[in-house]
């Protein structure tokens, strides 16, 4: 069984240590590092390149602000927000920066493990309470059906990158990007990449 490597960044030591201890008790989970700030998060990403980096929104330096740099340093890392913030704006901001998921603190070890396995598998995970808020406010409802890789592609499309440049950025074949785009257009109900990017940015 291949181990899943995890880094934890939270500025509350007791909480961080509790999460680390709980996850370390799971056979295929290995906690490779801990930190308390956005700078720590980027350092951990660069040094350990963990499969998953658990990150609080409110760490010094800003958790959400650190996501892009984390992914630039370690593209394969899945950033999973683990936070007390239940603000939809924080959720949307994190997902826009290509976080793989958003978990509200208070979940048990089993639920957190499920979220970790989900994002490692390439899917998107958001706590049920936050999903309900997204639907309630009609914000980015379409995102629920997109995989993490599809979210990465549409984000880069929205930044104006061509399929060729997206393929180079994600270390994939151009034909793979074309396939992802076909699926994305279908899921978003868009007729072209420009419309898909607009729908992704604005929601419905």
TrEMBL record:
GO molecular function: DNA binding
UniProtKB keywords: DNA-binding, Phosphoprotein
Single GO BP term: regulation of DNA-templated transcription
SMART domains per record: HTH_LUXR (SM00421), REC (SM00448)
Residue spans crossing the bilayer: none
Pfam family, one: Response_reg
HTH luxR-type domain boundaries: 139-204
CDD domains cross-referenced by the UniProt entry: LuxR_C_like, REC_NarL-like
Superkingdom of source: Bacteria
Domain Response regulatory: 5-120
Modified residues (4-aspartylphosphate): 56
InterPro entries found in the cross-reference section: CheY-like_superfamily (IPR011006), NreC/VraR/RcsB-like_REC (IPR058245), Sig_transdc_resp-reg_C-effctor (IPR016032), Sig_transdc_resp-reg_receiver (IPR001789), Tscrpt_reg_LuxR_C (IPR000792), WalR-like (IPR039420)
Name used for this protein in its record: Response regulator transcription factor
Organism: Rhizobium leguminosarum bv. viciae
């Amino acid at each position: 069984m291949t181990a899943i490597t995890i880094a934890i960044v939270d500025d509350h030591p007791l909480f961080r240590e509790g999460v680390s201890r709980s996850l370390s008790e799971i056979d295929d989970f290995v906690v490779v590092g801990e930190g308390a700030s956005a700078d720590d998060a980027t350092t951990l990403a660069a040094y350990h390149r963990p499969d998953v980096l658990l990150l609080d929104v409110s760490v010094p330096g800003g958790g959400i602000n650190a996501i892009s740099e984390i992914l630039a340093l370690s593209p394969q890392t899945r950033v999973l927000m683990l936070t007390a913030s239940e603000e939809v704006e924080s959720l949307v901001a994190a997902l826009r920066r290509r976080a793989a998921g958003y978990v509200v603190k208070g979940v048990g070890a089993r639920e957190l493990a499920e979220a970790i396995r989900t994002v490692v598998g390439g899917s998107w995970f958001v706590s049920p309470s936050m999903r309900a808020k997204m639907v309630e406010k009609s914000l980015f409802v379409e995102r629920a059906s997109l995989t993490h890789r599809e979210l990465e592609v549409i984000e880069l499309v929205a930044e104006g990158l061509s399929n060729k440049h997206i393929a180079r950025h994600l270390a994939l074949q151009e034909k793979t990007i074309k396939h992802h785009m076909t699926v994305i257009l279908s899921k978003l109900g868009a007729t072209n990449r420009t419309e898909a990017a607009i729908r992704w940015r604005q929601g419905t």
